[in-house]
Amino acid sequence: MLFFRRRKLPRGRKLVCCTLLVIVIFIFYQIVTSFNDEDVEFDRQWTCEELKAKDRLVKLCKDFTNGNTGGNLCRDLCTSGELVIQDCLAHKNTTIVFSGTWRKNDIVFKTKRRPHHVENLEDVLSIGVSDDEPTAGDEQVYKNFVFHVFDHVQNELSFFRLKDMIGSEQQVLELLWHPHPLGELTWADMSSLWLLIQRDEFIKLQLLKEMKHIPRVYGFCGSFYAVEKVETLEGFSFTPFKRPMPWKKRLNAALDLLDLSKEFTETPLGQLHHCDIQPGNFGVAKDKRVVALDIDSMFATKQMEDFLEQPTCESDAQCDFFDCVSACNTTENKCSRKILTNNLQIICRDILLSYWGQPGLLQRAPIHAQNKLSPVLSDCASDKMLPWKPGKIERIYRKLKTVLSEELVSN
């Protein structure tokens, strides 16, 4: 039998090996964390101090006073005091949110991170802004501005019947300026609005302002805009240390969610698909309307089809855009443009039944309601047999609405 004696490394070589090992581990750690840092920064809650939120407001008013920022709420915020800021709400690093009031309306005053690629208005209009700044009084500049606003809105939403819906390019500008009358605009007004509409949430909120289930917009100053304040549906659900909202209140919210799913099938922009359906992205307004909050994740069918049509795919998982799901054609290695899910099904699955293991809005119902609700809710939330035919959507909608309405009357 042979015995092999382990050869000992000299102490110096041991030290070199250990040092190299530490360096390799350090480099590996840096690579891993560099991939994760952006996700962590995005996901975690930031404090208002970290975001320097209040400094942003001070600068906003300073820029307005100096004529560098415009908007239809700047005077109310910075001069008259009709827009009162109360609290800063901690949020993700993509958004700064304040609560406040404007003319007796409870509002949130918010801004989102500036997109990476934004053209300044001077470049778009191919002009140099001098001390004698162009305004709406400069007819050619104003006409070019109106045209570029219309063109941007149309292309941003992939909605090429915009003129049929609105009537004229000028009316698109009037919609974006709503609820204030459109007067003569300063250069600061025009450039601020141009930067604001690079964020498509503001565009959608304004174009869909007549819809019941869209929160009201009260105006803007610079990159901040004021929106109707609501109570999110997170406050309606069960948590281990909190009692749920009364059953009747939850029934009313559920019924209005059904109406929301119905309203979203026919809108001025066509059918809308909400791709991030969760309790925190919906809320109840003072007048009891349920409204959609995360408008960034809501797309018209044409826009959604463009997102889903990825260059290549190898599996169905690569064809999901959050809750908006397609399938991979493995023969052509392309995602189908056909959207498999629908708003009603995801609302049932992720809000009415449960969300990430948390009991949903209609969970733990009174005993007399459970037997009637359970079968239709399970049918509604099922991921099987997607996509639904229009007849199935209507059948489940009517059945669920009937059960909820009867339960509401009995309470």
Helical percent range? 40-55%
Low-confidence stretches: 1-9, 24-42
Relative strand content: 5-15%
Mean pLDDT: 87
Strand order of the largest sheet: 1-2-3-5-4
**Cα-atom radius of gyration:** 26 Å
Number of helices: 15
Largest sheet: 5 strands, antiparallel
Taken from the alpha-carbon principal axes, the silhouette is: globular
Please state the structural category. alpha+beta
Q: How many beta-strand elements?
A: 16
Tell me the span between the first and last alpha carbons.
88 Å
Subcellular location: Endoplasmic reticulum membrane
Domain FAM69 N-terminal: 7-162
Family: Belongs to the DIPK family.
Keywords: Disulfide bond, Endoplasmic reticulum, Membrane, Signal-anchor, Transmembrane, Transmembrane helix
